[in-house]
Design goal:
270 residues; mainly alpha; two-stranded antiparallel sheet; globular
Length: 270
């Protein structure tokens, strides 16, 4: 699996005619979550003293995350391309949440394993990370000495893997944990593009910090270490982003190979 020049040098994200469609779907999803799980939303809003200085208790971090992710997902929106990212984010997010909650690495305040209302956050975050990666790709152009990315890559991902093994070690008796560790090892040892992997990891970890900071300090979810948040949880968002990126690359190449044999081109690269 190799990356193409267009994937290494993606165009700067701009607003497209699909941006409104995607944002409307985003708002509709949020609305459905609030409607279906209204008791949870009502409980959350009850913490705000609306008759007093409500701005002191208002969740400005959540609003900030919402606004930033809203702007990000609209940048460079292309439903033909983003549809795959949404699917990968939803399936991948459900898998990660199922692993984490079933092994008790983290638990939600609703005690669901996993809660369905958290799953839509994964494709939204996946789209946001994709846009951030595009932005970093423009801000940090390929260096003349490409080999510099090799030691940086192994330092970042080698350190993450050690941290991962330490963090999940209490759950190695569960079958899913060794499988997750093996999958991460395969992804780390077979990078198609070290530079783009680093940028994707950085974008995922950057967004992951704010998501984890919000969730753990509001006790929406709690890790077994009770850290708010643990470093592994933040960096795990970066690793998840790399995994989703690799799956997306594999799907593109497979579909394009099939369609090339039929004389058509199914999906745009990049």
């Amino acid at each position: 699996m190799t990356s193409t020049a267009s994937e290494r040098r993606a165009p700067f994200p701009t607003w497209t005619r699909h941006s409104l469609y995607l944002f409307s779907a985003f708002l509709m999803t949020i609305g459905l979550i609030i409607y279906i799980w209204w008791p949870l939303a009502e409980e959350y809003l009850a913490y705000i003293d609306w008759k007093g200085p409500w701005w002191r208790y208002f969740d400005w971090l959540l609003v900030g995350i919402f606004l930033v992710m809203s702007l990000l997902i609209m940048a460079g929106a292309d439903l033909r391309r983003d549809g795959w990212l949404i699917l990968i984010g939803a399936v991948g997010g459900f898998t990660i949440e199922a692993w984490g909650t079933q092994t008790n690495l983290w638990t939600y305040y609703t005690a669901e394993r996993p809660p369905l209302w958290i799953i839509p956050a994964w494709p939204i975050a996946t789209l946001s990370i994709d846009r951030l990666t595009h932005l970093l790709d423009r801000l940090i152009p390929p260096a003349q000495s490409a080999p510099i990315f090799k030691p940086i890559y192994w330092l970042i991902f080698g350190s993450f893997y050690v941290l991962m093994l330490l963090f999940v070690s209490p759950t190695f008796s569960r079958p899913y944990t060794p499988l997750a560790a093996a999958l991460c090892a395969v992804l780390i040892l077979t990078p198609p593009d070290r530079r783009l992997a680093i940028l994707t990891f950085a974008a995922g970890s950057g967004l992951g910090y704010f998501l984890e900071r919000w969730g753990t300090t509001r006790q929406c979810w709690t890790y077994y270490t009770y850290q708010t948040p643990p470093l592994f949880a933040v960096l795990a968002h970066g690793m998840a982003a790399v995994a989703f990126w690799r799956v997306n690359l594999l799907l593109k190449q497979t579909l394009n190979r099939i369609c090339t044999q039929k004389g058509t081109h199914y999906i745009e690269e990049g």
